[in-house]
Amino acid sequence: MIHFHIVTLFPESIKPYLESSILGRAIEKKLIKISFYDPKKFAVGKHKRVDQRPYGGGPGMILEPTAVLKAAGKALKKMSEGNPWTKTSSKGYPRTTEVLFFATDGVVFNEVMAQKLSKKKNILLICGRYEGVDARVQKILRAKKISVGPYVLTGGELPAATIIDAVARFIPGVLGKAESLEASRVSSPEVYTRPEVLEWKKKKYRVPKVLLTGHHAKIDEWKTKRRQK
Question: 4 near 123, Cβ under 8 Å?
Answer without folding.
Answer: yes
